[in-house]
Amino acid sequence: MEQTQNTTQKLPYKHLSFEGRQLIEVWHNKGASNREIGKRLGWLHQTINNELKRGTTTQIKENNKPRQLYFAETGQASFSKIFQSITAGNGSEFSSLHDALQQITDVYFAHPYSSWERGTNERHNGLLRQFIPKGTTICHYSKQFIQLATEKINLLPRKILNYRQPATLFLEEIQKLKIKTCW
User: What is the CB-side half-sphere exposure of residue 160 using CA atoms within 13 A?
Assistant: First the structure.
């Protein structure tokens, strides 16, 4: 059976730009809530919360009291260090990905019908199928079930990572970034 209509919704891909991070810094310093900042910028409040966590550093004042401050530069640098590149498929859902991430990271697209070019992605799809069979709608599963499946997948050692767990390596990388950005 041939599909004649595109049923995939085009996502807006409103990733944080450096200018957006600067606005977050200004409004956050003026005491605006995450929800208020999110409404002003058209982003979810959780996106603002994640960005504030990523870009916050500890500084020591003259009286040796530490204080937490958000800096747009730190948030931008942290994001760029975590995502060195992104390889996507050719679906319409990725059509604006290159433009959205142009100043942030390199974006590559796999050739059509060349799943081996996204081997890690295909491997993770296979792992996910152990929990959610192909063709099954994800809405039939509870949030707790999906969280448990995600945790099990991320705690499974990978040969490509020298038999280490992705969750552990990700946390180690985040810790390295925190150490580099703390004063």
Answer: 7
Domain annotation covers residue 2: no
Tokens 């003026």 — which residue? 30
- 137 and 180 part of one domain: yes
Assess contact for 88 and 106: CB atoms under 8 A: no
- 1 within a domain of the structure (yes/no): no
User: Does residue 23 fall inside a structural domain?
Assistant: yes
- Per residue in 27-63, pLDDT (tens digit) is 998 999 999 998 998 888 888 888 888 888 777 666 7
Query: Could you read off the pLDDT of 55-87 as tens digits, one per residue?
Result: 887 776 667 777 788 888 877 776 666 667 788
24-28, 171-175, 178-182: the lowest-pLDDT one: 178-182
| Domain enclosing residue 35, as ranges | 9-109
Report the alpha-carbon distance of residue 110 to residue 87 in Å, rounded.
Answer: 7
Task: Give me the number of domains the chain comprises.
Answer: 2
What one-character DSSP code corresponds to residue 7? -
Q: Which one of 92, 109, 126 terminates a domain?
A: 109
Query: Strand, coil or helix: what is 120?
Result: helix
Write b or e for each residue in 114-137: b if 16 or more Cβ atoms lie within 10 A of its Cβ, otherwise e.
eeeebeeeeebeeebeeeeeeeee
pLDDT at 32: 92
| DSSP conformation class of 118 | G
